[in-house]
Every structure is written in structure tokens, then in C-alpha cells.
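Researcher: Please translate sequence to C-alpha cells.
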Amino acid sequence: MNTNDRGDFSEIPVLDVAPLYGTDREKIAATAAQLCDYLENIGFLYVVGHQVAAQSVEAVREASKAFFALPEEQKLDVKIDKNFRGYLPFAGSTIVTSSVETVSKPNQSESLFFMHEVDETDPRCLAGEPLQGPNQWPAEEVLPNFRPTIEHYVDGMSTLARKMVGAIALSLGLPEDSLDAHFEDPTIFLRLLHYPTQPKEEGLFGSAPHTDYGFITLLAQDDVGGLEVKNKDDEWIAAPPIPNAFVMNVGDILARWSNHRFVSTPHRVVNYSGRERYSQPFFFDPSMDAMIETIEACVPTGETPKSGPVRYGDYLMERIDKNYHYRKKAS
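Model: Translation complete:
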């Protein structure tokens, strides 16, 4: 990597990941090499050529719109719980852990969170382990077919995410399956977001400048736009919607895992469009009990890792507990 190139970008590149679904090792290796370049120098890219159907993406978007159009009291029937599943009302989070900017005003959005499904009889749930419990679903009579629409999408996104895990391993010169053990029971989030149009007010954002906590994010946007990514010159570069593409970015735990070879790039959302904005970020992270230790191949000879080992669940809960208002009140 040429460190002078890091953060030097004026647009977000596009990567065709279709080879990752095939068996041509040469094409897979070439895709992984290109991915490595984007993750090292930008930390963001558009992913095309995936096998998540456009109809599935659109079905989730329509389900999201239908949910957020419900009266507030019906949305609060599935109010977010201790396991981080359910409805987070408008302005329910402030990104106080941001390393990018001092944030004092809450995000101008409302959300509906889903995670990996954990049955209430599961030993992890019975033991009260963090983030281990069942999802909360709107009643079938209120939003018919909502749950299967979401679950179908999560299945497709999980397959894509696992393809990206393998490609990331290859990009670091490792065997394709070398990171898989850390994702045996992955921590998965699907967040449905609704951003009303916002006033132009100092320090007010749809989503304040931040970096993501986890491994990778795969974002489906509507056609409104508003996502911006910060380059090394402190310019905010637009990441406009591209049909049938996901925006992928490095999260903090992948940056840490790679000894910061891969860059977790600051980004934000501003919605001055005059239209409602809907997005659906999918976060694919290690198992809660996975120990994240710097990958040896990422540490130059004679140097020591930039970060010590950390249990992913402990790392994640620290950030969630600080940034979400409802958790502070409960503590």
C-alpha cells in the first residue's frame, strides 16, 4: 500500500463480486486483490454482481415504509428491548463515541432493529447474555408478510457477507476460510432507518459523522441520497445511490483486526432533499464470544500490533451502551 494514497479519493469505486459466487480461482483472487486496494485506501466501495435479488431489497424497503407510517403507539408495541431488537423512536441515539466529531445532538432518524434470531428457550437467552433474545415483529394483522420478507432478505445478505469474509481473508494473503471460525455464530444486525427531511442547523445530522463498530456494513439506499464519506482532505464525498448496488464499508473491528491496514472511514447522513429517506444497513460481525487478535500477516516484521486482543461482545456492548439513550436510562 502506498500510504500517500490512503484517503485520497473523490468518488466511491465499484467492485463486481460475481466471481465470488463461482469456482474460477483466478477470477476470485483478482476480485480479492481489487477489494484489498479499496479497503486499504478508501474503506468504502459499491458492491455489484451479487445474488441478492432487487425484488428482495425493494420488498424490505416497502415493508420499512409501511412500518414507519404506522401510528406511534403501534410502533411502540415493539419498542426496543434490552436485547437491542425493536423500534427506536425518533432522535433516540447520539453518537458520543464518535472519533470524528464531538456530537451533542441526537440523530434525526427513527429505526427498527433486527438481529440474529435467538429463541427465548435458548440457553444464551435464559442466561441473560447480552443481545441474545428473540426479535420483535409487528403483528401479522397489522403488517402482513412482514416477518418472512425480512428473514428472506437477511438470509441473502448473510450469504453475500460470508462471500466477503472469504474475499477479505484472501486479500490479506490468508486461506479463504481462515476467518470463518470467528463467524460460526455471527452477530447480525439489520437496521431499517427512516430519515425525515431535516433543517440546516449547525451540528444536526440524519446520522452524525462516525465510523461503524463492527466488521463490515452492507447498505441498501433508496434514491434520495444523503450518504457522505470523508476523505483525507476533510472533504465530504457523496455516495449517491446506484441501482442494484450495496455500499460496503470497513468497520472499526476489521480495522483493528487488520492492524489498521484496512481503514474504517468516517461517514455521515444529511437529508436536505425535501423528501423522506429510507435505508437498510446490514451489519455482519463476529460471534459475541470471538477473540479478536491482530492478524499476524498484517504486522510488519519487528513491529508489535497496534491494538491488543479484545472479546468482540465486550467491545460491542461498550459502544452500544454509550450511544443509545434508552440503555443509559436503564443503567
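Researcher: Any highlights?
Model: Helices lie at 25-41, 54-68, 72-75, 123-126, 146-171, 252-257, 312-323, 325-330.
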